[in-house]
Amino acid sequence: MHIDSHEKPEKYKKYINRKKIILVSAIGLLFFLFILAVSVGAVKIPFIKTISLFFKNTATMQQYLIVRSIRLPRALAAVFAGAGLAAAGVVMQAILNNPLGSPFTLGLSHAAAFGAALSVMLFGSGSMQSSATDAVKITNFYLTTGSAFFFCLLTALIILSMSKIKKASPQVMILAGVALGSLFTAGTMFLQYFADDTQLAAMVFWTFGDVSRASWKELYIIMGTTITLAGYFIFNSWNYNAICSGDETARSLGINVEKIRLISMMAASLLAAVIISLLGIIGFVGLICPHIVRKLIGEDHRFLIPGSIITGSILLLAADTCARTVMLPHVLPVAILTSFLGAPLFLYLIIKGHTK
After folding, report:
1. How do the domains of the chain map onto residue ranges?
2. CB neighbours (10 Å) of residue 47?
3. Residues forming beta bridges with residue 126, ordered by sequence position
4. Cβ distance 287 to 109 under 8 Å?
5. DSSP assignment of 78-127, as one string?
6. What architecture is the 81-352 domain classified under in CATH?
């Protein structure tokens, strides 16, 4: 039977175009949710007027201040923090060949939180507040993030060592992450034990994880880090595809597996450390989003990484919008909603023994 030589390329084009259509649709949904997030709240601003605010100022002074000083930085923080956590999660799953990998499930989030708390409370890199919306004000970003990154990287190196030396299964690596997370949580509790009442209340609020505490200064840091490291991850998408096929296969293609794995883990750890040190612990975003995208567009990291980044932004932005509107006038930390969403999926993946 004769097969047209153009048939396979045409099928491949349709296959690729389908993925592109899904990604473009996701970007459109993200834009819609972003405008919605800026428009809703205790003071409602019409959807159309919110759009016009980005092109010309047609709002009252009150509306302008609400959008410019409160809602816009919060929405942007949700977009870029969600993107960063999802990017870190999908890369960790690739380089560890572990579908349960993410900064939260591997203990990196708790390690970064301990490092940030240690820096703030002992080294004076932040000032304590008693306000729920501004529990910790970071005064020395480099010291705080450096401390968070150190403990985050230490945890990552332990996980990498187990993956390489002991050939640990995905379940064993997750159990190791749980153990390390518990260790650093105990360390944070130790610091809290010696804190005064104001410091203790502030640290409890801070560990919840909340995008509202990002001012424009913190937002620029999160944006710059996320864009830079996400670009690195996308640039190495072919390498991640090869690594997922097996280390031997990747080496036969000329890929330095150990170097890619180490640099990618360090980059993912830095990304998680920056976000967590500024916003607190936000769980399960890095776990949920790659699995959602895999169901829609498959395993190819050329599309899986961008798709996870967009989905992470959508998930965290939608969760934050619900968190601040569902119980008005009370505003919930977004980490509460992400944990409610992520915990059932995490249990499902463990019970079903899901593999990539």
Report:
1. 81-352
2. 14
3. 138
4. no
5. HHHHHHHHHHHHHHHHHHTT-TT--TTTTTHHHHHHHHHHHHHHHS--EE
6. Orthogonal Bundle (1.10)
Taking Cα atoms as reference points, which of 79, 333, 340 lies closest to residue 222? Answer: 79
Asked if 41 and 71 touch (Cβ cutoff 8 Å), the reply is: yes
Read off the DSSP letter of residue 128.
E
DSSP states of 147-196 as a string?
HHHHHHHHHHHHHHHHHHHS---HHHHHHHHHHHHHHHHHHHHHHHHTS-
Dihedral sign for Cα atoms in the order 90, 162, 157, 258 = negative
Phi/psi for 296 (5° steps) reads: -95, -40
Distance CA 69, CA 12 (A): 47
Predicted pLDDT of residue 3: 47
H-type helices in the chain, by residue range?
7-39, 47-53, 61-65, 72-95, 108-122, 141-165, 170-193, 197-208, 216-235, 237-244, 247-252, 257-279, 285-297, 301-325, 334-352
In tens, the pLDDT along 143-188 reads 887 888 899 889 988 888 887 776 666 667 778 888 998 999 999 8
Q: Within the chain, which residues score under 50 in pLDDT?
A: 1-3, 5, 132, 354-356
Tokens of 191: 């610091």
Note the pLDDT of residue 40: 84
Rounded Cα gap, residues 262 and 197, in angstroms = 41
Beta bridge partners of 137: 127
> Which residues are within 8 A (CB) of 117 and not within 5 positions of it... i.e. 6 or more apart?
188, 191, 192, 203, 206, 207
Looking at residue 301, its pLDDT comes to 94
Tokens of 298: 């498959």
> Quick check: bond before 73 cis, omega within 30?
no
Supply 133's token pair: 């919306």
